Each structure stands twice: as structure tokens, then as C-alpha cells.
Amino acid sequence: MITENAFAKINLALDVVSKRSDNYHNLRMVMTTVDLYDRLTFEVLDEDTIVLSSNRYFLPTDERNIVYKTAKLIKDMYAIKAGLKIHIHKSIPVAAGLAGGSTDGASTIKALNELFKLNMDMEKMKEIGKQIGSDVPFCLYGKTALVEGVGDIITPLPEVPRCWVVLVKPRFGVSTKEIFQNVNLETITHPDVDKVVNAIEKNDYYEMCKHAGNSLESVTFRLYPEVESIKQKLLALGVDLALMSGSGPTVYALVRNEQRAKKIKNSFDKKHYEVYAVRIRG
Ligand code: ATP
Questions:
Q1: Predicted pLDDT of residue 201
Q2: Ligand 1 lined by 93 (C-beta under 6 Å)
Q3: For 142-192, where are the alpha helices, taking DSSP H only?
Q4: How does residue 23 score in pLDDT terms, banded at 50, 70 and 90?
Q5: Contact 8, 132 (CB under 8 A)
Q6: Which sequence spans correspond to the domains of the chain?
Q7: Is 83 in contact with 47 (CB distance < 8 Å)?
Q8: What is the mean pLDDT of residues 70-78?
Q9: Is the shortest distance between the CB of 244 and ligand 1 below 6 Å?
Q10: Which end of the chain is less crowded, N or C, counting CB atoms within 10 A of the terminal residue's CB?
Q11: Residue 22: pLDDT above 90?
């Protein structure tokens, strides 16, 4: 049996650069992981089947689940006749902008590589990851990086300055597809991604906070005004940065110490929000 921890990501920068002819968008992003993770266990079965279970009743356990899809793809590619029993203990909120599905997919690639001794190197794993989802290549890497193209060009960056992250998600999910369909390239704002990169390279926390930004915020805020209210509330609490992650609806805040993070966490009502105070992993 193999256990994998699949970590959530946040975007310190997300710039929608252009639209491609295949309707995908070219992006420039700075991403890192936080200490919030799903725990996946994998066991080999004699019978040629994939048996998936999870602690969340609403997650599909068939080919609609990214974990199932990934395992099936690899089994077919390598003509693996053995089966798999996989359990997902999910802690990352779903449809939240935290790459919860992609990180599970990335962990599945790593686990099958090990279980079946497939000898895939990072390039090969990334190639499979790209077919599963655009955040999967980053999740395979799992550390701070500049991510470009459609999520497939990864340039490692130094660790993000040490800090705490408070994640606030309203009790609804947002479809990434819906947000991208509503992007208007004429009107969106563009964060200065290079300044965020430079700040991380200089280990300058406040510069990083100053330049962090997300082109998709205005799109999600227009469709879901409650997401903007979360950002406003966090800013009013005096955090160093409040920014939406990915296409939302999770908004996160950065602060330097644990006590402040816990205090901010406790100021949100748990009936309406899922809130986590976690360390940045860098
Ligand atoms: P991203 O930040 O990459 O856009 P997200 O956090 O917005 O990701 P996910 O949590 O990955 O979104 O979920 C998106 C959809 O994928 C959900 O509708 C969910 O039902 C489906 N899904 C399939 N498999 C999984 C999985 N293992 N974990 C979470 N969601 C999954």
C-alpha cells in the first residue's frame, strides 16, 4: 500500500495573457502549495478493476473522478492487468480554485509510477499530467514556480518568504470553465508577474504582497459578488495581502504570524464559510 499527500495550491499571480486558437488561454502564473492536503491510499488488486472510494459523498467514484481517469489512462498506456483500490480522504474544498482535483491526479501518477515500477521521469509524468488537467504539471512539481503556457511550462522559483495563509471559501463552488468563458481580454487587469517573481527571488515578503494579483478576480467578482465581500472583509482586518486563488471562489490572506492567522480565521462564521489557517509550504 502507498499513501500520498496531495497538497492544495494558491496563485500569488495569475495573468491571462491571450486567447489561443483552440480557445484555451495562455497564462502566466506564480503558484505555490499550502499545508492543506488530501490523503490518498493505493492498493494493488489481483482483479483487473479500479475501486475508488472517498470520504465525500458528492464526489464521483467512476470515470468522472480525475483519480479514476488518471489510473485508467496509465493502466491502458502500460497494459497493466492488475487492479487498484484507491481511497481519497478529501480535505481540500472542491471547485474552490485550489486545484483539489489536479493535485489528486498528480498524486495518482506518482503512486502508480512507484507501485508498478514504471520508471517514468518527471517529463513523462508531466506529459501524462497535461492530458488530465492544466494544473497537473504544477502539482507534480509541487513547489513554488512560475507557470506559463497552458500550465505546462514550469520554471522553479525559490521558496516563498515564510508566512501563514488564511483560506476563506464561501459555501458554493465556481466552475473554472464558466469564469474563463466570461473573460474579456479588453477589460481585464494584468498583474506584473515579473515583479512578483523578483520579490520572491529577493525573499521580499512585502514586495511580493504588493505586486500579487489575479486577472480573474474582476470576472468572478462580477458573477459572484460575495467573493469580493470576502476580500473586502480580509482587507479591513488589516492583512498583508487578500487575493482570490485561481478562478475562485476561495480568497486567501497572507499574514506573518500564526496568532494573527488564527484570529482572522475565527472572525469568519463557519456556517457560511469554510476557513483554514495553514502554513505556506514554499
Ligand atoms: P482549479 O484550481 O484547478 O480550477 P478547483 O479547485 O477549482 O481546481 P476541483 O476541486 O479540482 O476544482 O474540482 C473541479 C471539479 O472536478 C468538481 O466539479 C469535481 O466534481 C470534479 N472532480 C473530479 N475528481 C475530483 C477529485 N478527485 N477531487 C476534486 N474534484 C474532483
A1: 98
A2: no
A3: 176-181
A4: confident
A5: no
A6: 2-156, 164-279
A7: yes
A8: 98
A9: no
A10: N
A11: no
Cβ(95) to ligand 1 under 6 A?
A: yes
3-state secondary structure at position 133? coil
For residue 92, report the distance from its CA to the centre of ligand 1, in Å: 10
Residues in the chain: 282
Task: Indicate whether residue 103 lines ligand 1 (CB < 6 A).
Answer: no
**9 has catalytic annotation:** yes
Pairing of strands 83-89, 50-54: parallel
pTM of full prediction above 0.85: yes
**168-224 confidence digits (pLDDT tens):** 999 999 999 999 999 999 999 999 999 999 999 999 999 999 999 999 999 999 999
Q: Give the chain's count of helices (H) and strands (E).
A: 10, 11
CA of 94 relative to ligand 1 center, distance in Å: 5
CATH 3.30.1490.270: does it fit domain 2-156?
A: no
* Residue from 266, 270, 262 nearest 278 by CA: 262
Angle at 226 between CA 221 and CA 230, to 5 degrees: 95
